[in-house]
Amino acid sequence: MSSSEDSKARDLSSDWPIALYDTLKAAGVSQMSYVPDAGHSTLIKLFNADPDVITNVLTTEEEGVAIAAGAWLGGKRSVVLMQSSGVGNCINMLSLPVQARFPLLILVTMRGEWAEFNPWQVPMGQATEASLKAIGLTVLRAETGSDLVETVAQAATMAFDADQQIAVLIGQRLLGKKKW
Fold first, then answer.
1. Are 159 and 166 in contact (CB under 8 A)?
2. Whole-angstrom Cα distance, residue 174 to residue 44?
3. Which among 110, 122, 141, 164 is least surrounded, fewest beta carbons within 10 Å?
4. CB 17, CB 46: distance < 8 Å
5. Would you give the DSSP letter of residue 117?
6. How far is CA 65 from CA 8, 27, 31, 69, 86, in A?
7. How far apart are alpha carbons 96 and 93 in whole angstroms?
8. Which residue, among 105, 146, 106, has the nearest Cα to 13 in the 3D structure?
9. Rounded to whole angstroms, what are the CA distances from 152 to 14, 74, 110, 123, 124?
10. Domains of the chain and CATH, by start
């Protein structure tokens, strides 16, 4: 690895949310929906501060799926941010973009994995990937900041250019141990 590649990898270990924001903006994302989550907090702040982006705070994750479909019908690109525990809340709603072939891009911060302290997070954390695949989504996973940025760039292309439904799982190890 060259010194510039090593520097870039080091920078993305902590600055990946900024690079991820830049990647999503470059992909034309102009709407973002989310349930508040510490793992997405920097990305949420960046999108909320952007006057060119419409942000929606959700009361439940499945609302984000419907908003993403409506955004697409209105000519906009959207991303939905959620935690793995929220995936179970929106399984039925995910049939909308799968059956209607609407592009969908979801970024899922994982729980129930690396250094998890809350036993209630473990079952859905273990079931997230299989649940998303069972309903028809393509699931990609990233464990490092640089992998995440590259994976989301490709996921955005798959979603918006090929009308695919894509979920990117963000490993809990990348997010670090939750502190309460």
1. yes
2. 17
3. 122
4. yes
5. -
6. 33, 18, 12, 6, 12
7. 6
8. 146
9. 17, 23, 15, 25, 22
10. 3-175 (3.40.50.970)
In one-letter notation, the amino acid at residue 9 is A
Query: Which residue's entry shows tokens 């993403």?
Result: 68
Q: How many residues does the chain have?
A: 180
- Beta strands 104-109 and 77-83 are parallel
180 residues of the chain, pLDDT tens digit each: 454 454 444 445 678 999 999 999 999 999 999 999 989 999 999 999 999 999 999 999 999 999 999 999 999 999 999 999 999 999 999 999 999 999 999 999 988 787 877 888 877 889 999 999 999 999 999 999 999 999 999 999 999 999 999 999 998 888 776 666
Cα 11 to Cα 53: distance, rounded to the nearest angstrom? 26
* Radius of gyration, CA atoms only, the chain: 15
pTM beyond cutoff 0.85: yes
